Amino acid sequence: MKHVSILITNDAVLASIADPRIIFTGINEFLEAAGKPPLFKVQLLGLSKDVKLHSGLFSVHTDELISNVSKTDLIIIPAMSGDMRAAIKKNEEFIPWIVKQYYQGAEVTSLCVGAFLLAATGLLKGKECSTHWLFAKQFREMFPEVTLVDDRIVTEQQGLYSSGGATSYWNLLLYLVEKYAGREMAIIASKVYALEIDRKSQSPFIMFNGQKTHEDEPIKKAQEFIEANIAERISVEDLAMKYAIGKRHFERRFKKATNNTPVEYIQRVKIEAAKKQLESGRKNVNEVMYNVGYTDTKAFRTIFKKITGLSPVEYRNKYNKAA
Length: 323
Description:
Layout: E1 2-7, H1 15-33, E2 40-46, E3 50-53, E4 58-61, E5 64-65, E6 74-77, H2 84-90, H3 94-103, E7 107-110, H4 115-120, E8 128-129, H5 136-142, E9 147-148, E10 154-157, E11 160-163, H6 169-181, H7 183-192, H8 217-228, H9 236-242, H10 247-258, H11 262-279, H12 285-291, H13 297-308, H14 312-319
Parallel strand pairs: 1-2, 1-6, 2-5, 6-7, 7-11, 8-9
Antiparallel strand pairs: 3-4, 10-11
Helix pairs in contact: 1-6, 6-7
């Protein structure tokens, strides 16, 4: 039987504690209904017997203290709320236990922004990780030694797992169910809990707001110029010349400030504008394409799908009620 340890961290998001418990105990129930033995021993572990969450609105009773658990098979780190640096500080007592369990053979999973606590263990150094797209910039600043993959819902490397933002962690939970209990159980769980199985990208949900929390004023002005001239064809050379910076130096400064190359930034600004036009109104894809400065249908479709994971038509059909 696989021992699943769900950590009740301080400032944990309640749903990301309840949901993994629901799915793993649910699999046990499905198996027992089929006359088979249960697969999982599910426990809620904490630093104290009672943990108050959401400003004391809820109280979670742990099954066991981590100090009393010498061996486990799967650790689940829930999402955390509030300031991430403060949340890590409040939960630093979990870190040596997580590290010790990992080196004893346990696998470790983070849900949504639980990735911050997982990264704080140092176990992700040199590895890939997912988290909520809203926290991507902060994650990169705090953990530059970890490769953050913004669009991915599930990452798995050497027994370390992470998920994308918010409820997309259900896809990681299904992934783990399939790994430990088989495809049939994963399909049953997806149907019982009304989940879309095998969803791999959170790209359709990402809202690009521009990265301007930096101090490089000429680059901020370049960003603002790009955003104010969505319909224009803007070259990197033009931008560099406009702000009197050499092209290569401009590209390096832009990438450092925004985590995007100038070309990527221009594309993301245009595609974000296209998304908003496709979400509302009755313009067809070609009209939207021209409005954001593209004239090549194939190029527009290719870039749109690369950024959102959907074709323009699929995106419009998904988010535009009129469509």
